[in-house]
Amino acid sequence: MKSPKRTTLCFVIIAIYSSQATLSLNLESIVYHSLLHEHELMEEDPVRQKRAVAISSPAAQEFTVDVEISFENASFLEPIKAYLNNLSFPIQGNDTDLATDILSIEVSTVCRPTGNEIWCSCETGYEWPQESCLHNLTCQGHDGSSAGHHCSCLKGLPPKGPFCQLQGDIILRMSVRLNVGFQEDLKNSSSALYKSYKTDLETAFWKGYSILPGFKLVTVTGFRPGSVVVTYEITTTTTASPALMRKANEKVTQNLNQTYKMESSSYQVTYSNETKFSITPEIIFEGDTVTLMCENEVFSTNVSWTQGETGLDIQNSTEVSIYTSVLNNMTSVSRLIIHNITRGFMGEYICKLTLDIFEYASKRKVEVIPIQILASEATEVMCDNNPVSLHCCSEVNVNWSQIEWKQEGSISVPGNAEIDTDSGCSRYTLVANGTQCPSGSSGTTVVYTCEFISAHGARGRKDIEVTFMSVGDNSSHKGEVRESQRLVMEMSTVQSTTKNSLETSKAREQQAKLNITPDLISVSEGQSFFIKCISDMSNYDEMYWNTSAGTKIYKRFYTTRRYPDRAESVLTVKTSTREWNGTYHCVFRYKNLYRVMAKDVIVYPLPLESNIMVDPVEAAIPCHSSHHIRCCIEEDSDYRVIFQVGSSSFPAVKEVNEKQVCYKHHFVADSVSCPENVDVFCHFANAANNSVQSPSMKLNLVPGESITCQDPILGVGEPGKVIQKLCRFSNITRSRESPIGGIITYRCVGSQWQIERNDCISAPINALLQLAKALVKSPTQDEKLPSYLGNLSISTKQVKLEVDSFSGTLGAIINILDLFSTVPTQVNSEMMTHVLSTVNIILGKSALNTWKMSQQQKTNYSSQLLDSVERFSRVLRAEDSTISQPNVQMKSMVIKPGHPQSYRQSFIFLDSDLWGNVTINGCQLEHLQPDSFVVTVAFPTLKTILDRDVPGQNFANSLVMTTTVSRSITTPFRILMTFKNNHPLGGIPQCVFWNFDLANHTGGWDSSGCYVKEVTEDSVSCSCEHLTSFSILMSPDSPDPDSLLKILLDIISYIGLCFSILSLAACLVVEAVVWKSVTKNRTSSMRHICIVNITASLLVADVWFIVAAAIHDHRFPLNETACVAATFFVHFFYLSVFFWMLTLGLMLFYRLVFILHDTSKSIQKTIAFSLGYGCPLVISIITVGATQPREVYMRKNACWLNWEDTKALLAFVIPALIIVVVNMTITVVVITKILRPSVGDKPSKQEKSSLFQVAKSIGVLTPLLGLTWGFGLATVFQGSNAVFHIVFTLLNAFQGLFILLFGCLWDQKVQEALLNKYSRSKWSSQHSKSTSIGSSTPVFSMSSPISRRFNNLFGKTGTYNVSTPETTSSSLENTSSAYSLLN
């Protein structure tokens, strides 16, 4: 006897009952007493027992009762199950209720503790219903759950039931093709041929499908043409996984006679009762928004919708939207939404999900009816304060969302509406008085409209005309009116026209027109394409792109811009893949109105260059021999492949090896000269005639006698030869299902190939790396990322030993994390757990040796990993989440509106003996946007790994703590951190952060914006003005800001600069005073022009130097921009000083060497200013243009040219040192010229002295300036002695004083001009005895004590009497002119 209605929960008790009393069940009379001696360990759930039903009829009835029993001691479970299974039925009731018999008791659901969770699973023959699997958490990795089908295990009991239910039969409708000719006898089931086919096929089917769980029966149902298509049905009690079904199909093929030629790839499976198809609403009116929902317990989004009458696939349009997603990682849910439905959408709809050979199909019929409204007929109303009622009723009574009354006319007479939801009617009562019907308005007609609005948007209306009559007008008609009010209202059925709401009507009036890229978009994989969609209106609420399946495109792929008269969106795909093949919709939404334009994209298969594997990567080939070369891909598509060797091309031979397809060529070395290096490429061309070139294969043709290493896989090689080989083509052990990746390097040592570097990637990680590379190009990135992160976490645990041994696998995992971190817009707690679980393994202490190997190979994995974790933490959306692993911990907090509490997090790593705290005051958090997330991640071992990238420094062992905020920070921000002090007695602590822009974007520690707040024996407290990854350094080379050396350098700099600026200003004043006296000839004029520009350039440079120091020390607003400007001008004007010195030297060289050549003053000035300012300007602009876009123009701790990252300082040092060398060379040439003049051009003793005087200025100033920056260059290097810092600071600060003394006051003409001006004004009486300037001895003359001191520097003493240059010969003229250049 079977129960007509069965619901199961833990125990299923079938009882027959014939009394009117309520069924009562006493478990103690059923269950063995010895198992229940501790009554408190078992309690009956009275709520569950309320399912027992009272019987109103004395006839025997059968019921199913669900009972739940809970145990505190799990050991009771198995004895009770055994006892219940051994009971014999029926069981008679007790003495008080003899009419109740228990027919059977079955255990359906068992819950067991697993870790910290309770896992509830179904017993044999039972399964969780689809609703329970969909709305509850399933057990991860439970063996009893078939992938993609009904779950058998849930985490905890569903709070509202139902529980496991008895499994019903599942019928699989299948088909397979036989590649034999179809005969008409196969249509006749009684023919011998039909029976022979049926017998043979069913025999093979039974042997193959008997391995399916719950298999019962298989029957051939018929044959149809198309070769021969066999249709058959399999009856099972449970669904089978795709892998198991494929295995069963293979067994069928193996057991069937080969003469049937069964096509193994033609199997198709259709499930008959696995799809839940629902339609909302049940009653559909014209104008409703209707949702057809299809649910399958299959992990797939490959769902299509078809309209049965037309057989055409339904695509997204303005009226129809399709959305498909996967819930709880196991249930596919597809929704077909029909907006503003009309009767044209009536008919049968088919929902079909395809997964491998499985097809899940279901169909439902959609009926659409108009809204029929019955309303009062036109009537007349007397304005005499008597109530009159208008009535409206819907013919079909549903739960109307709203019934509205409106009126339209020249007079306003409002009424009172009453709605009866049970009957679907509304009454509108009018009470008109004389004031509402003024004189002259009698007979006015007002239209009253009743409008019915459904819960899903449909609208139906009916108009009622009401004529208002004034009291006293047409009194004879008054009685007729009142009589008509007493008449029974006659109803008429009128089909109303469905209309949208007023808001949607207005929106429809301003509906946008869309235009989309008209050209056919047909590309091959790897190529780019874009689709432009233009709306002629810009006032839209939302714009997005989606696929034909309703999946929204990730926002990174398109940009949208508004213009005053239009809006446009451009979908741009830089690297197309096969996933982009399909139809794409440009959707503009305004309120509830959607405007959609579709565009088809055809993407032809073509392998990407990075996916083409070449063998060999590099190989040596003996001259006049041959070698096999190949290019392989992971797909079997119809490509045309040729090999190119130089200008020659050769066909390829295709070879298929499981999933790998290789194209081979037998390369013959006789075709080219020897020895030679040959580059070989293979070209793949597809059906669209697009091609891609593989990476090159480098073949080195070598003489055979020099070969010592030989290997059938690696090839041959000379001693010391280094080759690279793809790991999958090497002799490294690999998996057949998932080949290993990466490159392995070999070196020929003696007669053997030895591994020099192993960068191989384990099989599961290599597979994930390929998926990650494809994911960043996929239009559905967000959907795939959670499962990919979970797979990465699992795979990393599986290959932990390889992570601890091989840097290739480690690097691949970091590259995968880096690629994944660029995808999400938000990350939940589960995804972040997967990320940190992966990070925990690769940062384990056992992996530190692998990190050391990778850093010896100059990789940047540590900085890349840190950057990836920061990106994940910035998009984390999990309230107050905590994740703790041995090698990484994470804590987060969400900022609530109002006055947020302070952010305080602590991290303790006992194994590493490290701890740290992070604090952000509440007042700082108030400036953040509400619902922002603050996340801190701490690493105990990452510091050791990062420090290896910065050699030559002593670092503290401390935590690395990275803190991020999900929203951008627009106001000044301060974070406080405390680190454990592991070196209380050694080194100076320094608070630093990891700057990813340093060292050419490879990263490095930087102290900008951070300072030490407090140091104790146990801790170091830091305060920083920004957020990123922080730590502390202990470096003896980093001077303390409060140290004596730092203070001394600051004092020297500022005092020296003051003297320098005053000296330069004095020099300019002196030049202005004596200008007319010292610039009477061309060469003297040019010499003083150079001196004035040298002085002015150095003066401006010193001023900018002070500005730069003030910007950096005091951190003024906009300090970064101002610091860039200060650096540029200091660079430019310091260079100008040197280039004007070069101009001065070249002028001297020109006047002495090119004696007979004369150039005009204007040309000389043009050359001088071009060289003095033009060259520095070009160098400065190139320097800032090349480095500032990458933000490596300046140093991080000063407004001056960068050295650590780009060596931009060389743009100053190199030109300056070159000029020093050139000027010193010119000085030597000048002196040589004077000491050894040419024949007939020997100067007199007086001329020699003059020319020595000429060279003094340039000979003194050039070395001083060059020596200054020589010391400056020495201070750049790490660990430089403090003496270099002090000497450089002294020389640099007093350059102005040097120029005043040696460039200005040392000039005898300047001295004479000053003396003349000085003696004429005040002291003429004291010099009356002097007869000429030549006989006087002024304070600045060469015989004065001061001048003698300067001359002693050059080994010269005595008195110089300078007379006016003679002009008797060209030689003398030019020598004197050269002398004037520096005097």
UniProtKB/TrEMBL annotation:
Source domain of life: Eukaryota
Signal peptide: 1-24
SUPFAM superfamilies named in the record: Family A G protein-coupled receptor-like (SSF81321), Immunoglobulin (SSF48726), SEA domain (SSF82671)
Domain Ig-like intervals: 275-367, 512-602
Annotated ranges, domain SEA: 166-281
Domain (GAIN-B): residue spans on this chain: 879-1040
Spans through the membrane: 1051-1078, 1090-1112, 1132-1154, 1166-1188, 1208-1231, 1251-1271, 1283-1306
Gene3D superfamilies, per the entry: 2.60.220.50, Immunoglobulins, Rhodopsin 7-helix transmembrane proteins
Example of a GO MF term: G protein-coupled receptor activity
Gene Ontology CC terms: apical part of cell; cell surface; cytoplasmic vesicle; plasma membrane
Alphabetical list of InterPro entries matching this protein: ADGRF3/5_N (IPR057400), Adhesion_GPCR (IPR051587), GAIN_B (IPR057244), GAIN_dom_sf (IPR046338), GPCR_2-like_7TM (IPR017981), GPCR_2_Ig-hepta-like_rcpt (IPR008078), GPCR_2_secretin-like (IPR000832), GPCR_2_secretin-like_CS (IPR017983)
Family to which this protein belongs: Belongs to the G-protein coupled receptor 2 family. Adhesion G-protein coupled receptor (ADGR) subfamily.
Name the UniProt record assigns to this protein: Adhesion G protein-coupled receptor F5
Species per Swiss-Prot/TrEMBL record: Bos taurus
